[in-house]
Amino acid sequence: MKLSSEAQAVMDNLLTRRSVRKYQPTPVPQELLDRIIEAGTYAASGKSQQPWLIIQVTDPEVQDRLRRDNARFMGADPGADPFYGAPVYLIVLAERANRNHVYDGTLVMGNMMLAAHALGLGTCWINRAREEFDTPEWQAWLRSLGIEGDYEGIGHLSVGYPDGEPRPAKPRKPCVYKV
């Protein structure tokens, strides 16, 4: 079956996106970040409730705190950089009371990763947002931003220009059964 050029571009984007674990220090233009975040807000959500928040972090002081806490939660050296030198972090949180919050927030992360790849940027999903945002310190930080409510951390997304070529995809495991 022959795909339209638009459909082929979408399929290529889906099949070629890879996690990036080394970034150039080049700043990412706000216009590109806005497009990535917008793509995240168009993720599917149960009953279209959109229970998520996306926080863009470029402040070096906040990034340093996130790096240190993330390294601590993963049991790494305090000087480790779990964000791989990315110039931008996007944090996805979702309303804990929403029964689909983890699934909906995960779709936001996926949309943003694919949008960034389509725009020539690299990303990597960084775990431990749940552990971080369950602490009183990070809950207080959310309140300092004017964010009220009970939000669970879904994930962090490191964003930037890749420094080098990502590794090729591993072969796909058989996982489809047709009945």
Can you describe what's shown?
The two termini are 22 Å apart. This protein has a four-stranded antiparallel β-sheet with strand order 1-2-4-3. It contains six helices and four strands. With 179 residues, it is α+β, with helices and mostly antiparallel strands. Helices cover 40% and strands 16% of the residues. The chain has a single domain (28-160), classed as NADH Oxidase, CATH 3.40.109. The chain has helices at residues 5-16, 30-41, 60-74, 101-118, 129-133, 136-144; strands at residues 52-57, 88-95, 122-126, 151-160. The mean pLDDT is 96.
Order of helices and strands: HHEHEHEHHE
Helix content: 25-40%
- Name the CATH architecture: 3-Layer(aba) Sandwich
Largest sheet: 4 strands, antiparallel
Using the coordinates above, name the CATH class.
Alpha Beta
The mean pLDDT is 96
Q: How many strands appear in the DSSP assignment? A: 4
Give the DSSP E fraction (strand runs of 2 or more residues): 15-25%
What is the CATH topology classification name?
Answer: NADH Oxidase
Structural class label: alpha+beta
Distance between the termini: 22 Å
The shape is globular
The CATH homologous superfamily name equals NADH Oxidase
Count, helices: 6
Spatial order of the strands in the main sheet? 1-2-4-3
> How many separate domains?
1
Over all CA atoms, what is the radius of gyration? Answer: 17 Å
